[in-house]
Amino acid sequence: MQKGLAKVMKLKVGFYFDGGKELSHVVEGEDTTQMITNIQKHKTYNMVKGNTHYVVDTEKASYFYVEEVQ
Question: What's the pTM value of the predicted model, to 2 decimals?
């Protein structure tokens, strides 16, 4: 790996809502901590699953998670 280039990994990002509803997808990112920080900074999160684009209101989610996908 070249100096200064971050390792890109696959991350699963999921949001849970009242009533047991979950919305998740897999994206590329540098690490879980950075992704969590980015989600916490914004009121909305843009998610693409297949041909569908979602705008998730992060303040209405009961909670969210970010995990590394092997």
Answer: 0.83
